[in-house]
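Data availability (excerpt). All sequences and predicted token strings are deposited with the supplementary files. A representative entry, NlpC/P60 family protein, is shown inline so that the format can be inspected without opening the archive.
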Amino acid sequence: MSDPRLTPFSGRVAHVRLQGQIDAPAFTDGQIMRICAPLSDLLRRPDGPRDRQVLRGARVCVLDQIGDMAYVQAEADGYCGWLPHADLGADHTPTHRVRAPATHLYCAPDLKSAERATLSLNACVEIIATHGKFLQTHDGLWLPQQHLAPLTTHETDPVAVAESLIGTPYLWGGNSRAGLDCSALVQLALTACNHPCPGDSDLQERALGPALAHGTPKQRGDLLFWRGHVAWLSAPDMILHANAQTMSVAYEPLDQALSRIAPEGPVTSHIRPF
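Structure token line:
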């Protein structure tokens, strides 16, 4: 059976590429739009629980709408779900991404001006003007230049990106500086380094590389997977993960983590992504 997380079918309408593969009442090419809200919850059903979140500037294909909720598939990782239609805007062309853990959108190019919203790491914006150390977005708001990078500029160390998020609160299905979970910590870090990455840990375990042989020496940048969990190795004897033990992004000695998690099952994969 197709994975509903990655299958663009709302239960009423499916993407045309699924014709001949599934029995759907209707098919559509969909409409390409962008997330215009700072952050949007991607829900399992129009009134259902959050599965993931999508950031400002993310490109999505809108396939269905019920009331004020739209069913979309995110272009970056293929994740499907429902979000408020009000969070969608026109398909503009972003020029920059947020490279800091978080930043503020200001109403004027002045650090003392009122902030209008917070954007998180990897949110994308279209810049149209510069004033001193501030850059103006296409909707007239301003961001500190120091917190942005051109879309063509990528980070090189995903663990360093993950380390910049230490202390972020744990949030199931979260994908932002306001709160994130274990798989989001991996996805955000790899995305900043221009490496595609699925949204959930089980998908990541299958997509990010072959499992290394048992006994392979561990090194910084490796990933360890348990049932329902993933962690970065920041050093051969230390992991970095968003975890429910501390309810935050935190370091944990590897031996301590292995002992603590052992009752839930063994490490299922040791992967060296890309």
